[in-house]
Design goal:
Length: 408
């Protein structure tokens, strides 16, 4: 086991125990209030044996993590701590969290979830975000059990910073935005969460599951840990398997497409004019430079696309590289909207091609060559003019979803 330090919000030092091989799928464990990462020791051991790399983190003000001098323990700061740690990991982990840690995880993953994590498991986490309910939970948190020597340690100022109203407001409506495989685990005898509340919460998750551990009120306890481990490992094996999907010639084409999707790309809209002066265009992410001298680029166009015959025959075409604010444009030109140009700012470029206004860059090209490429054709263009906007960020596409740059 290694002890690793991460930088949280405003540089606060956050300490974690890390076990497991570096190349194994990662699982990040977050404890509740009045606990430390030690509460996960049995879970971490089981997950390591199941082939996972486990990071058990101490929240700020708990255990070996920094207890900041300014006593800053507001909820949003702890949420930003988690987002900072997730950004520092080498891969997107499955986040497993209980009680306070669960609230932090829900808030941290209600935006950019797919960029930060591969899934979410909530355990013993109250999911009725009514302010009155949250206040009752906060009152219970202010009276934590006395720490045994050498075990749980936490800063008492944590409980003074607990603001039920702001936490409830922050979490309200978050569940539908967590677009990740998710599991909610509750003790069948739980006083914190009713079956109805748990089912209602899971029903709001885009991809949620609910399990109950029999004869338990709290799941993260030594006498019920084996049952928890069983549910957790089953979920991980189904939703975040260790083995890599494999494609071989003649097998499922979807697997091949998913493998290609592991290459992150920009997004372009390829445009041209029909002989009658009507603009046409479509979204494409198979785009690359070919040569600097002469200046050549290529795009791959699906033969079945409605615009394909016009693009194949056009003497001039343009490639418009989209910026982060042009996701609606990408969707519009990928669909069958007949008014795609009516809804998109554009102008006729110097060489007679439709140029989309506000793009990250636009290349006006003369057709250099056309090559067959299976169900696509490869359109090679000689660049006549290129313009670009250095202050914008690109719209990215990775594993079937739009992405944005993360600046470390």
């Amino acid at each position: 086991m290694a002890v690793v330090a991460y930088r949280g919000f405003a540089g606060v030092r956050l300490e974690a125990d890390v076990v497991g091989a570096e190349d194994d799928p990662a699982v990040l464990l977050l404890h509740g209030a009045g606990q430390t990462r030690a509460v996960w020791s049995s879970v971490a051991d089981a997950l390591e044996k199941a082939g996972r790399r486990v990071i058990a983190l101490d929240l700020r003000g708990h255990g070996g993590s920094e207890w900041p001098d300014d006593g800053r323990y507001d909820f949003e700061t702890m949420v930003e701590d988690l987002r900072a740690v997730l950004a520092q990991l080498g891969s997107r982990p499955m986040v497993v969290a209980s009680t306070l840690g669960g609230w932090i995880a829900v808030a941290a993953l209600d935006r950019d979830a797919a960029l930060l994590a591969s899934g979410l498991v909530l355990i013993d986490t109250p999911v009725n975000f009514d302010a009155q309910v949250m206040r009752r939970v906060g009152e219970r948190m202010r009276e934590p059990a006395s720490p045994a020597p050498g075990q749980a340690q936490w800063d008492a100022r944590l409980f003074d910073a607990f603001d039920a109203d702001s936490i409830a407001a922050r979490l309200q409506g978050a569940a539908p935005r967590i677009a990740l495989p998710a599991l909610y685990a509750r003790g069948a005898m739980s006083e914190l969460v009713s079956t109805a509340d748990a089912a209602a919460f899971v029903g709001q998750l885009p991809d949620g599951e609910l399990v109950e551990v029999a004869d338990a009120s709290l799941v993260v306890t030594e006498d019920r840990i084996d049952a928890l481990n069983g549910h957790l490992i089953d979920f991980l094996e189904r939703r975040a398997p260790r083995g890599s999907p494999e494609y071989r010639a003649g097998s499922d084409a979807r697997t091949f497409r998913d493998a290609l999707g592991c290459f992150a790309t920009g997004v372009t809209v390829v445009t041209a004019m029909c002989p009658d002066g009507t603009p046409i265009g479509l979204t494409a992410n198979s785009f690359t430079s070919v040569s600097l001298d002469p200046p050549l680029l290529l795009v791959c166009i699906a033969k079945g696309a409605g615009s394909a015959p016009y693009l194949r025959g056009a003497d001039r075409f343009a490639v418009n590289v989209l910026q982060i604010g042009q996701q609606p444009t990408s969707n519009r030109f990928a669909g069958k909207d007949e008014d795609r140009f009516a809804a998109t700012p554009w102008e006729v470029g110097e060489f007679g091609t439709p140029v989309l206004s506000g793009s990250l860059s636009s290349f006006e090209c003369a057709r250099e060559a056309v090559h067959d490429g299976g169900d696509h054709f490869i359109l090679v263009g000689r660049v006549l003019k290129a313009i670009f906007e250095p202050r914008r960020d690109p719209l990215l596409y990775f594993r079937g979803k739009y992405r944005k740059l993360h600046f470390a």
